[in-house]
Design goal:
This protein has 13 helices and no strands. The protein is mainly alpha-helical. It has two domains: 150 residues, no CATH class; 91 residues, Serine Threonine Protein Phosphatase 5, Tetratricopeptide repeat, CATH 1.25.40. Helix 2 packs antiparallel against helix 3. It starts with a helix and ends in a 7-residue tail after the last helix.
């Protein structure tokens, strides 16, 4: 039973790195997924237009079209809007032709990351890191760019089954956490790189999850992964305590029954 939960949790971990309203889980309804994809594609288009200096009226028109597309999603069926490879490559070529235009590199790099994460497209994720690194050269401590690069390498590690990329993701998360050490979502993602790497370092993972929970003690996502890490460590006492904290945060959390079963099955080992 726990193995099925673990697989689901790994999927959640991978998608959770899309921090900007890009969380997509298996249980999301088809209609909601369609709306999310339409919004993402339109959002990328807005980023491209901003980078190219389009005027306010054109942006407003695009936002109106985005709203119309969302409203029409009920009748959109199961068709999934896509950007063509040529559309994407043309933007990348423009970025390569204008490497000193850092605003364009940033807008396109972030948009490509979000789109590639949605599509689980590792080569495109790699392209996004190339653009974002150009921006980082001029501002090495930039929190948002370091987080975006950490997220991109996290997804490369997960989708590409490339465990060493988790270590690369950590380097960027560490830089981001130097400026904002109490940022709970980034701290949680940092902990997940230890939890998901091969082999895992669950001791370090629970340490990072604990730090994240000091800043946000009712964060359900962090609590769930902390419970799982304690289970992996056969630490029943802390697993039970953390599970109770999850119940306190949200007694209706869907993961509680299966986590409770797994916690009860732990044979406590001596430390």
């Amino acid at each position: 039973m726990f193995s099925s939960f673990w697989k689901a949790a790994q999927t959640w971990a991978a998608f959770s790195v899309c921090r900007s309203n890009l969380l997509i889980f298996d249980q999301v309804e088809k209609k909601a997924l369609t709306i999310a994809i339409i919004s993402l594609v339109a959002g990328i288009a807005i980023g491209f237009l901003s980078a190219n200096g389009f005027n306010r009226s054109e942006l407003d028109a695009l936002r109106s079209e985005n709203a119309r597309l969302k409203a029409g999603a009920d009748t959109a069926g199961e068709q999934e809007p896509r950007l063509s490879d040529e559309e994407i490559q043309s933007r990348i070529r423009k970025a390569d032709e204008n490497p000193s235009d850092l605003e364009y590199q940033k807008n396109l790099g972030v948009a490509l990351y979000r789109y590639a994460a949605m599509k689980k497209d590792v080569p495109l994720l790699t392209e996004s890191t190339r653009l974002l690194k150009r921006v980082l050269v001029s501002d090495p401590g930039n929190f948002d760019i370091n987080v975006a690069l950490g997220n991109a390498y996290f997804d490369i590690a997960y989708f590409g089954q490339d465990s060493p990329a988790f270590a690369t993701a950590r380097q960027y998360y560490e830089t981001a956490l130097k400026s904002k050490p109490a940022d709970s979502p980034v701290r949680t993602d940092y902990g997940l790189t230890y939890f998901l790497q091969d082999p895992p370092d669950n001791e370090r993972a629970v340490s990072e999850f604990s730090m994240a929970l000091k800043s946000d003690p009712k964060n359900e996502r962090t609590l769930e992964f902390a419970v799982q890490a304690y289970i992996k460590l056969h630490d029943q006492a802390n697993a039970k305590k953390t599970l109770e904290n999850l119940r306190s945060a949200n007694s209706a959390n869907a993961s509680i029954p299966e986590l409770a079963t797994a916690v009860s099955a732990i044979a406590e080992t001596s430390k």
